[in-house]
Amino acid sequence: MNFKKYIRDINDFPKKGIVYKDISPLLGNSEAMKAAADALVENIKDQKIDKVVGIESRGFFMATLLAERLGAGFVPIRKPGKLPYKTFTESYDLEYGTDQLEIHQDAILPGERVILHDDVLATGGTAEAAVKLIKKLGGELIESNFLIELEFLKGREKIKTSPVQSLMKF
């Protein structure tokens, strides 16, 4: 399936000079969404996976589908103040500023096999912070996967500790 036909470019969002890759058309098409989830688990479907970690907020959509397909639990990584229990926090840089991510301190047990998912891999700052949180909890990162990779931003270089898979590259 040509997944790129379901991605819409939005110029100057969230700020001038950024071309935002909108996944809403892909999510709005049940056939495309199912095929994308199936494609993302194809290389790992025969492995034992304990948790799928999704990054707020668009990473949640596919991460929950991946968790269901892999028979794994889902773990959200969120912006500060959004999780109700004790958290660990990690700061990161992104292509248009800085931010922080949090994870519940008991979300991943030491030795659990983890997949990380987000919608877009850009500069890699967000994914790198998520990887640090997973490792802080003792998780074994099996793969980081993304719907979209913006190759020109070289984000893959920041998360070399596990295989990286992206469904579409721009």
TrEMBL record:
Reading the lineage from the top rank, the first entry is Bacteria
UniProt entry keywords in alphabetical sequence? Cytoplasm, Glycosyltransferase, Purine salvage, Transferase
Residue ranges occupied by any Phosphoribosyltransferase domain in the UniProt entry: 31-148
The primary site where this protein sits is: cytoplasm
Q: Mind listing the GO molecular function terms for this protein?
A: glycosyltransferase activity
How is the quaternary structure described? Homodimer.
Family named by the database record: Belongs to the purine/pyrimidine phosphoribosyltransferase family.
Protein name as catalogued:
Adenine phosphoribosyltransferase
Q: Which gene encodes it?
A: apt
